[in-house]
Amino acid sequence: MGSTLKTNSTRYLLILALVLILGGGFLAHKIQTSGGIQIRDVRFTGSGGKQMSALLYIPPNVSGTSRAPGIVAIHGYINSRETQDGFAIEFARRGYVVLAVDQTGHGYSDPPAMANGFGGPDALNYLRSLDFVDPDNVALEGHSMGGWASVIAAAKNPQGYKSILLASSSTGSAGAPQGTAAFPRNLGLIFSTYDEFSALMWGVPIPVNIVSAPKAKKVFNTEENIVPGQLYGSIEEGTARRLFQPRMIHPWVHFSSEAIGYAVDWMQATLKGGNGLPSSDQIWIWKEIGTLSALIGMVLLLLPLGAYLLRTPFFKDLEENAAPAKSMRGLGWWIGALIMAAMPVAIYMQVWKYQGRGILKANFIWGQQITSVIMVWALVTAAISMMLFFLWHGLINRRSGAVMSDYGLAWKGGASWIKIAKSLLMAAVIIGTAYLSLVFSDWAFKTDYRFRVFAIKPMSRLQFGIFLGYLIPFMFYFLVLGAVLHGQMRKTRADEQPPALWREMGINIVLLLAGLIGFLLYQYVPLFMGRPMPRPDLNLAAIVLFQFVVIFIIVGVVMTYFHRKTGHIYVGAFISALLVTWALTAGQAIHYPY
Questions:
Q1: CB atoms within 10 A of CB 587
Q2: For 44, phi and psi rounded to 5 degrees?
Q3: Which residues, at least 6 apart from 160, have a Cβ–Cβ distance to it below 8 Å?
Q4: How far does the chain reach from its first CA to its final CA, in angstroms?
Q5: What is the dihedral of CA 456, 462, 467, 473, to 10 degrees?
Q6: CA 152 to chain centre
Q7: Residues 189-239: pLDDT tens digits?
Q8: From the centroid of its chain, how far is CA 26?
């Protein structure tokens, strides 16, 4: 009876996962093609022969004899073309052809990152070259670093655009020319009240003070404080300016109906044509719900796949019950939990200082600057955690008879390299199947698995090579993490029995996230109270950590489930390493000029 229930629950979980993947992908596809919009995955050659990648959104009834206005939409640093989908969908629904481009070194555009004006000038030239786009009726929209790309494009081709919308961005940064009363032409600026980069962008540490920033007042051609929402200058003369101030943080501007509404209003005011659909009529959020559903479905898919593989003759010997817990108890457990929370954050803050320097400088093996920071953070954390683990085992826990098999590191007969190899193979089969589901979604729906700043995308050949370079360091980290979670910090009930599976997953997720959440609160609570971030030098570091909230939830679920199924740490650790390395390398910027 128990076996039948387990079989049924596994089958139902598999069905649920497939429904979420297929249903979510279908929903996302229907939203982004709403009203007959076509989406093309395009490649074009940019400066220096570099291949550029973009998604091209084409409204219905557009042709060489019925040209439409066009908009270049450019994402920010360590994002990709899909991050702009909210803007792109709503622009396209209003009759604008939209080119959502991957910046150089991002997504599927050739590296290195930040080359060729971030790809902005090439994107503008390509969009204007399309025979169904009115070349004299084109605008630029860019978020964060994509705004700098837009400003550079405007400077390179001053007659090639009619207006520009900067979202969480500025003029006069990273090679982008300084703004004046006349440049760029017809500037709309969305700068949120909690933007982490106000000092970098506009020279004011408190975001709301952009209204009095000398740099901003020069661009708006006023000596008075800027009034949000007020039109300055003239659209007809190309000197128009308007500031919009939504209440949100920097990375969520492209996930905001308010900000997207402002962008639509600005394009409708400064471009000719379009269908006049009100800016309040928005559907893009349903695309995000669809890709989130597909992401959840992919994570759930890992679990029944593993359960079914463990029933096959080849992998069956990996299925075991975990040994009784011989972990920390009482005050010791709470001390261990505090160390798990505090130590990674302290290491992260130190490692971040060396971004782009020494071993953290992009090289042929490790070509992604941010991924290298995360890798070194993981390695240092794992090395210290392993040292503390073996000190605890050797000085305290071994006296009570604990051995490596009690921690899920070995089997009763000792280490089994065959079973470890089988665990790696099983993890590869599971992740390979999940990858194929993503390839199918990309082919059938032109969507990936994502939500906000976290995404899992198909890898290019170059990204796969980079993935292999980072994989072994991340495997080491997750093996150590597995030993800590399931050997040292494993919880039991008062009767020495393990807690319910979902409760154990929750405990492990809290252990993984507590320190990260504490650091984010430390940074953002003062910002939300109208003060500068305590550590403005770590504002990008904080934004990078947002994706790890999602990553560690997935890791907590996967590692706990497979520890329960196999009694050992290996399958869960290998799956986590493969999945996280894939997500990072497919989603991060490539800085090495391969």
A1: 26
A2: -145, 160
A3: 124, 125, 128, 135, 138, 153, 154
A4: 58
A5: -140
A6: 25
A7: 999 999 999 999 999 999 999 999 999 999 999 999 999 999 999 999 999
A8: 22
Nearest to 20 by CA among 449, 307, 446: 449
Say how far apart CA 483 and CA 478 lie, in whole Å.
9
Residue 413 φ/ψ, nearest 5 degrees: -85, 5
Concatenate the DSSP letters of all residues of 210-244 into one string.
GGG-HHHHHHTT-SSPP-TT--BS-TTTT--EEEE
Q: What are the tokens at 266?
A: 């600005």
Q: Which residue has the tokens 């934004």?
A: 543
Peptide bond into 536 cis (omega under 30): no
What tens digit of pLDDT does each residue of 313-324 get?
Answer: 999 999 999 888
Q: What are the residues facing 188 on neighbouring strands?
A: 165, 242
Residue 475 and residue 580 in contact, taking contact as beta carbons nearer than 8 Å? no
Torsion-angle region of 489 (φ positive above 0: left; ψ -120 to 50: alpha; else: beta): alpha
Torsion on CA atoms 530, 535, 536, 538, rounded to nearest 10? -130
Cβ burial, residue 330 (10 Å; 0-12/13-18/19+)? exposed
Residue-range domain boundaries for the chain = 33-282, 287-587
Q: Please give the CATH topology (third level) of the domain spanning 33-282.
A: Rossmann fold (3.40.50)
Supply the DSSP symbol for 178: P
The residue assigned the tokens 């000398």 is 214
Please check whether residue 331 is in contact with residue 40, taking contact to mean a CB–CB distance below 8 angstroms.
no
How many CB atoms are closer than 10 A to CB 346?
A: 12
For residue 462, what are its two tokens? 């170059």
Strand order in the sheet with 51-58: 38-45, 51-58, 97-101, 68-74, 133-143, 163-167, 187-190, 241-244
Answer yes or no: is pLDDT of 452 > 90.
no
* One-letter amino acid of 307: A
C-alpha 53/C-alpha 84 separation (Å) is: 14
Sign of CA pseudo-dihedral 440, 575, 512, 300? positive
pLDDT of residue 494: 61
pLDDT at 410 (0 to 100): 93
* pLDDT tens digits, one per residue of 478-507: 999 999 999 999 987 665 677 888 999 999
Q: Are 475 and 574 in contact (CB under 8 A)?
A: yes
274 contacts 94 by C-beta, under 8 angstroms? yes
**Beta strand pairing call for 51-58 and 38-45:** antiparallel
Backbone angles phi, psi at 51, to 5 degrees: -80, 130
In tens, the pLDDT along 237-266 reads: 999 999 999 999 999 998 999 999 999 999
The reported pTM is 0.95
Rounded distance, CA 438 to CA 260, Å?
28
Region of residue 357 (phi > 0: left; psi between -120 and 50: alpha; otherwise: beta): beta
Provide the 3-class DSSP secondary structure of residue 55.
strand
CA distance 25 to 213: 44
- Helix (H) or strand (E) holding 505, with range, is helix 501-528
Nearest to 452 by CA among 368, 372, 551: 551
